[in-house]
Structures are given as C-alpha cells and as structure tokens.
Amino acid sequence: MTLTIDNLSKRYGSTVALDGVSFEVRPGELFGFVGSNGAGKTTTMRIALGVLAADSGEVRLDGKPVDLEVRRTIGYMPEERGLYPKMKVGNQLTYLAQLHGLSKRDATAAMQRWTERLGIAERIGDTVDSLSLGNQQRVQLAAALIHDPAVLVLDEPFSGLDPVAVDVMSEVLVEKANTGVPVIFSSHQLDLVQRLCKRVGIIVHGRMRVVGEVDELRASGSAHLVVHAPDAPVGWADGLPGVSDAEYLDGRTTLAVEPGADDQQILKTALSTGPVHEFSLEQPSLTDLFREVVAA
C-alpha cells in the first residue's frame, strides 16, 4: 500500500499550519518526516488519521480516500500520551485490539505477542501511570501494532527511550517495513532517521522544502574535508584556494571546500606542518542538511 499526502493546506485563523504539503510513503518504506517544533508534522499526521480535517487537499491509501474503514487499517502512535492511565496494560491493549475488530481470543494473543516482543510482558498487570515514561512509550507502540496495521504513522516514537529501547523499537519498525507496510515517523533524532530511513521529507513553516533519498540529499550538500594534523598550527589552511571555511580543534581541522578544490595541494600544505593521521572527505550528515534547509 502507498500512503499519499496530496496538497494539504490547513489554517488556524491567520496562522498557516500547512501550505500545499505533498509526499508519499511507499510500500515497505521507512519514511522520516522531520522539521522543527511547530513546522506542521503533527498536523499532517492528524489529518492523515482523520483526527483533523484539511482545508484543502486529500490523503489517500492506495488511491482510496481515508475514511473510517481505511482508518481502521492504520496504526497510529501520537506524540502525547494517548492511553488510559488507570487501566492495566494488558486489559487496555486487549480492549484496543477488540475496538479494531479482533475477537477476544485474537486480541489476547496479539497483546501477549507484542508485550513480549517489546519487553513489557511482565508489566501487563500494572496500570499505565505506574510505568516509566520509556515503558509507557513501549505500550503506546504496542497499541499502534496490536491490530496488525497496513500502515504505521508514528509521531516522535523514540522520545524518552533509552538506547536499548531505541534498538528494540528500531528493529520492530524495520521488521514491519520488511513485510511491505509503509511506515512514516517523525523524530528530532536525525542521526537515527539517517540510519533507518532511505527517504526523508523536511517541512519548514508548513511547507515541504525537501523530499528525497537520504544518500542523494547528503551527496548534494556541502562536503567537508577532515584533516588530523596534530602539529599543524591554528590557521594553517586559511587562504588556501578552494577552502571557504575552516574549524580547528585539537589538531583536527574541518574544512569546507568548494567544488573542484585541489585536495592534493591541501594535503601537501598539511604535510608541511608535520605528520597527517587522517585526510578524508565527509558527506554532510542529515543534521547538517537539516540546518542548511531550515536556514535557507
């Protein structure tokens, strides 16, 4: 299935929340949806779920507009806690599964399977508000997965998780994508988005600024030359042809180089100061790219 976001616009009075937002999430794809706070990520996701109505535009799943029947096939994890705090974990997940149409037997089996997979099986008799924030997040993911959804829409699913929990959640999302499920998630942890996602979209002030493959976007950014010359004085690369900026820190220099710059001349200059332990060209990270897009 393909989730299509087609030209969504949304206003709150004079405030433009979304302005012609369009992108798609393909079958078996992990799509990273990134942007600053207030950029429009949550609004887009809520419209995709039918929680909010767009002023214009449309959301489609495999070409079919999202209605109540289609929404039942979507697994949604909101950024804010969306669980009943005084209800026990196991009872709550079973109840939510039954709301999605599972029989009581199938709902109980799904609850047991997902709580075991997410490492919270021993907490099914506890109320949600007695859990740590990280374990509450795991329960929220279980709630999104409990009905074997055809699409996953996750708003900041990694927020508040320790490294082990991040690994578990990452594995689950990759497993779901590998079964053909389109998965879209937002996150401020851009290193994680870069590692998990083949494609990303960057939204700024309600407009999609960039949509594309992570590797292609990084290759189109400004590359940096990293030089570790421990004896080189600060300022050794200043003024070299093709070097537009230089940062010096403890013998490690990061150079912003222009296309066509003579790297051999830069290396020769570095060697003239003493030994060179590292000389490598680094593509910008997704974090670097994000900063460039937001600042543009």
Describe this structure in words.
- The chain has 296 residues and is α/β, with parallel strands linked by helices.
- The chain folds into two domains: 3-218, Rossmann fold (3-Layer(aba) Sandwich); 222-295, Alpha-Beta Plaits (2-Layer Sandwich).
- Helix content is 34%, strand content 28%.
- The protein has ten helices and 14 strands.
- Strands 6-7-8-3-9-10 form a six-stranded mixed beta sheet, sandwiched between helices. A four-stranded antiparallel beta sheet has the order 2-1-4-5, covered by helices on one side. Strands 12-13-11-14 form a four-stranded antiparallel beta sheet, with no helix packed on it.
- Strand 1 and strand 2 (15-25) form a beta hairpin.
- It is elongated.
For this entry, give a set of tags.
4-stranded antiparallel sheet, 296 residues, 6-stranded mixed sheet, Rossmann fold, alpha/beta, single chain, Alpha-Beta Plaits
CATH topology of the largest domain: Rossmann fold
Strand order of the largest sheet: 6-7-8-3-9-10
Q: Per the principal axes of the C-alpha atoms, what is the gross shape?
A: elongated
Domain module count:
2
Instruction: Quickly give the structural class.
Output: alpha/beta
Helical content (DSSP H or I, runs of 4+): 25-40%
| Count of alpha/pi helices | 10
Mean pLDDT: 93
Q: How much beta, percentage-wise?
A: 25-35%
CATH-level-4 superfamily name of the largest domain: P-loop containing nucleotide triphosphate hydrolases
Number of strands: 14
Distance between the termini: 34 Å
